[in-house]
Structures are given as structure tokens and as C-alpha cells.
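agent> step 3/5: call structure_predict on target 'DUF4494 domain-containing protein' (Myroides guanonis).
agent> reason: downstream docking stage needs a structural representation; sequence fetched in step 2, passing through unchanged.
tool.input:
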Amino acid sequence: MSATWYECKVKYRKLDDTGKQKVVTEPYLVDALSYTEAERRINEEMSAFISEEFKITTINIANYAEIHPFENADRWFKSKVSLLAYDEESGKERKTTLSLLVQANDVKEAFDNTIRVMKNTMGDYTIPAVSESPIMDVFPYFSGEEGDSEKLERFNSLKNSKQETDQWAENEEAALVDALEA
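tool.output (status=ok):
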């Protein structure tokens, strides 16, 4: 079953850099089956982080084909990927555009991570745009069944890790795929 991602905007009071309380509205991404489940899940997730009152201002279906967390990264970037296909009947080239959400520290790293994600793609593709996303955090769905708790721990450890060496660079994609599938 394909994941449906919902972008939920949450309004709450937050301390800014000067120590003053400021009302902010920040977008978060949750994996859910419906708007109702997305609202329930974002309430659960935000209750763990915010001790004061908060308000969910909007919930919309997010237009991301795939979500890819990477080690040693703290920001999310939207990568626009155009898949190129040749239509033999008409003799024309067709483009199909996908949006990927990729975790990285800067635009160049996001571009490199997008290439790493796409390296096993059979067809031709281009990456016409990479831009920083306002998404603050991503909350994937795990059912709690046997095996899912290990997947959740693995996903979160990859997403939140601050590894100082690059020893995992080659096995990172395989680890992410294993954590999200199987």
C-alpha cells in the first residue's frame, strides 16, 4: 500500500533566539490513511513536544512521491525530479515530474542525496530544482506490530543521527530501504 502524506500546520508559542515567546505556525508531515487519522496523529506527536496549548490550522495532502531521511542531516529539501520516457508510438519524449522530500544540511547535499536515491532508476531523469522545504519534521506510520518497533527505531536513528564519520555512506540507502520496507 502506498503511503499518503499529510502536511499539518501547527500554531503554538515558541521561544525565539532572544528568549521572547513568539507565536509560530510550522508545517509537519504525517503518514496517515485519512484526514481524521492525520489530525489524531499530529495531536499525539505534538503533545510529546509542546507542553502548552497548540492549534492545528490546516491539514492538506502533501504531494511527495517519496520521503528519504539521511544520516547527519537536520533540514528537509524538496527535490523536483523529471523522469524521461520515450513514447515509441508518437516518437516523442514524455516527462513525468515527481517531488521527493530529502533530508540534508544544504542544497548541494540535498542534490547529492537525490542522485543517491535515484541511482538505481532504470530510465533517464533530470533534477530541475532543489529547494529548502519549510517542513519541520516527518512522522511516518508504524503499526506497532512485531517488527515495526525495530523499523521505527531504525528510521528515527537514521533521521536523527549526527554521525561524525562517513563510514555509512555506501550502506545508508540500503539501510533506509530496509527500515521502511520488509
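agent> step 4/5: record observation. Helices lie at 35-49, 107-118, 148-160, 172-180.
agent> proceeding.
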